[in-house]
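Section handout 9: paired folding examples.
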Amino acid sequence: MERADALGDVTPGPPACSDVPVADGVRLLDGLPRQRGPAQSVTARPVTAQGAAPGRRWVARPWRLLPSPTGTPFTCAFAAVLLVTSFVSEHADPALVHTLHQGSSTEVAHLVRTPVLVLVASALWVVGGVTSPYVVVLLFVLTALERRIGGPRTAGVFALGHVLATLVTEVPVGLAVLVGALPASSAHRLDYGISFGVAASVGALAGLLRPWLGWPMLAVFGGALAQDLVEYANPLTNWGHVVALAIGVVAVGAQGPANRRITESHRSTTTIPITCPEGWGRGGARSHRRPRAAEGVGVGERLRVADVERVPTERLVELITESFDNLVTVAIAEAVHGRFLPPRTGRLLRKAEWRLDWQDALLCAGGELQVATERMRYTGDPRLEVTEHRLSRVRHRAHEAAVLVKKLRRNDFHNSRERKSGTNSHLTAQGWLRLAFPDEYAESVQRERDRRHLSDFAEPPAFRDVHDEIAYAVGEGRLSAPRSPAVDALLSAADTAVRLAAADDAKDQEERDMALRHPLMLKRWENALRELGEMAAERARAETPHALGTLPDDFRTLSEAEAVAVLNARRFLAAVQQRRMECKRYVRQLTQALRERALENPYTLAASEAKAAADRLLLEGHPAEYAFIRAELRVHEEYAGRLPLSLVSSPGRAEIKRRVLGALADGSWLCSTLPEAR
């Protein structure tokens, strides 16, 4: 078999989403962020050539036409194998070479006995050796194809064309021999080479290239195949080339136009259409370290989607720790092109210490991308389809991140002391015994407290909400939170000033106001964000301040100025929603820290010891009642002393509790028969 190929250029992907300016005379929202300055019109910006980022001059890179071990590993490995087999064909004994070719032939006899072996082995030989023009064509085609769709999919296209075209041409021969239409010698026709795989690769590459380049490639290559058919020198192999070419085109066409465009943009140098906060790392802690350059990422430059797959994991951790903007880029790259990225990148984002940051980054990206798609749909931007695909993938990942975050919190709750005490049958029986004899237990606790001189300690006051508890902890020194002049200014400022500061913080995604994130400012920051959300929701045509939702049906009927004002308000509302999640996250982290530090408080330790001693005294005074409660619980235990989690949070537990306490109150427990354990 002989297969031909064509040369194709690398086509970078579509440019990033562009912003649409506000028309003159548009009234911006009072107290809300600056919503893009005035401009002459709202018509879509001129669309640059697909693949050239706005403001970036196209630079020819002819070296990308050649394979490289890091950029195209499959092409390099396959070329090395063909080089070895070609060397063997030229320098080994002719009898040995003929035996190897015969054993690798995909003739009917071999396909019946060892189909897998010969299908693989036949693709390792080149008719004509390494000097064959098909080797050169194969080198360029596989390089261009692998740079677009990756090594595994390139190998899949080559193998698909090679295998299916071989079967399409050889199976009819076998059937004809079986029915006697062809002689038995036709089942031993020598057939090997890479031509079917090359034809399929040419078809796939032509389908990925732009029409002005892909159609001429198909015309040239298809014309050569048609000429071979006219000459009728080797019709079986020639028809196999046509079939393989069609297989390659269909294999790419099955992706659909949106996926093809995404594939083209996979390795582009375009910056993603997201502008997000910078300087946030693991756990939401601000990093003041100077950003360092990664492989392919210079100092002061943003990490691009195309850089993510080339950055080692260790370096990637440093980059996303130093910059939240980089984390958003990595999150989008993993969501849209996850199958091309190393698996360790996905595992990194899903680690427990990064899940919250990952969810925050996806929320930021989702809001920006949604508003970008709405703006593109209104202006008729041709990049809408690509951006909608990105938005869909980001939302899918955001749902996955939310599930993992809930799982993380659920595990923390199940491992908490309160939850463990709820599943402990012994501790549950003690708690119900305290409820059965409250006065006696209260007297015992008071005696133990007096014996430990707990009255000398100041008891913590009752708090109205978690923010009062945080403020009390800061005042008592349980939370270390130094107050800067900016924090003091906000603490003494009016609510309007705080709301304006919160609006500036939400609109400026490159920096964050750390004064708002001081523990003493969290309550006022949360209130300001709630007010901003309510103010922006009406302007953004959103049904609720907590979600953008879909645009109303009459949006297309609005004037240009009104439409842009709505889009700007929606963009700001998305930023406010992201900030509200961040604020809640801070509150959860602080309350968790307070719970952990409360266990180290001397007063808390002494009070716990007093209650434990009172429990022992109550148990010694009422052993029969305690045995009755344990017997009632033993029926429901999973094993000795362990209650199932399903019972802890179910109405059945409350029913058992009411029945047990009622029996202890009216004395009927003395006449009851103790239930037997399962």
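Moving on to protein 2 of 2.
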Amino acid sequence: MLFIIPQFEQHFEEKILKKGLRLFMRSGMELIETLNSSELRFGGSGTELLLKKKGDKLLSYNCSCAGHFYCHHLAAALFLLQKETLALTPRKKIKSSAKNKSIPPFKKISVGEVLHFIQNRNAKNPDNSRLQSLILSVSEESCFEDYRQLFKIVLSPNYQKGILNQQEIDLALNQMQLLGDKLNRIHGSFRSRYYLQMALLTELQDFLQLRFTGNEEPLEHLKTTACEILHSFFLKKLSVAEKAAWQKALLLSLRNNAVLRSGVFTFLLPRFLSWSRSKSAFDGIKDLLGKRKNTIPYYTRFSALEVALFQVKLREHQVFKSPLAKTDADSVMNERMAKTEMAFCTGKTTYAFKLLDAGYQSVLSTHKLFFDEYTAYCIQKAITHRQSDTECRYLEERLIKGLFLKESELDRWMELLPPAEKQQKINELIAALRQPRFYSFEKLALILKKTQGWDDLIQEIKRQSNAYRLLHEVVLQKFPEYDKNLLLLYAKHLIGAMAALSVYQHQLLLFETARNYIDKLPEADKNLILDKIITHSGSESQLSRHLRRLYGL
């Protein structure tokens, strides 16, 4: 609950209350519709406000102005609800000109109309005249809300299904892209691309809560692209109306736990905080964050909610000099992440990378469980800011100290190495991985395969009990070069691999792969391997009888 409606005046700043009263007195706020017994929709002056109440208690509200947390539109709506109690009579409203009409009624547009509109290549087709005229009448102040409503209409049939297959994912993706292209062609004159991407991002966070049986990566890519475009606008400085749309989108991204999981707020919040100086806005955001569940997925160590709360508190400290509470040991890394992301968002790149390096030392010494996620974040920031030396350094740290080695990361690391230093750096990496502290046969095998260090790889295989499949790849690469020791090693690992297979048919299939190498050998070398297999398997085993028949032994 926010407050008791009859006592609403004491919750507003005086200037906001006076502004709301003036708006009410000139009939600038009207009750548009009653959605149910507890939800009321108000509108006026190009603004839309949804109010939820229970009896005399105001539960929540949502205003498209995205301004002051308790804005003058809310005050005007509450004056309207209390006009009889307060004995207030608003002046008769003068008929507004066409230029000052409220938000176009996109909610009355059907899904079919929008789909027909976006599938028709000619934007000025007379069949779409109604929707065309509504879009042309959109003002910059209402652009975000109107675009969002259009995306909602297009996506609405999918919400009824709940689970989407690949064909349905592709269709929804295509419809979103067609709508975006059409709106860009119609409204390309006043930076509508900004509002378009903001509306798309806001609706995508709802859409991504559905279950998908197909590939959802294109949807995630669409979300990432929208964030990149919006960030480019952010860097160029936003207008008052654009900032209002940003704040509105941020509040929508915090409204419930389901939407919170899409992570859109982690992009919107730090950038919003970089320009906002509104104490009420900060309080409202903290209130919304406090209502969300602080659950951390199994695959991450950082708490996005805790990071967000730290960002608000850090900004409050900067703007209002409010004291910062001492951070407990378990939250140190979340605070570091909050500071680093805020530094990146405010353009303090050099300082941000210093924070990254300091944080990494803390990871190595105290917070080792954060290693994988933290280094991935460092690499992502290095790529974004074109810091190839930093990217190379953190990639090398992951290759040596990470639990697993990703081939794509190894390829990228090798690509970044200066040609003159490449072989030396590879040798240093191999030497590091041979140390007992970091030893990993799987990592060494991948690097030695990638660099064609066959002899070194054979030496590593000798330390393993069963690495037949890898050894088979190596001997095929080395052929026709081999010696007796290599043949005996091959026979040993092939026998070990067969012994691990209890089913005779599986042993035959494995031997068929071995024949790609064995049958290339001279007769004496071939018989050396076959004799080893027969001796180990027993002369009367099914496998031995099969080999004698196959090779006439």
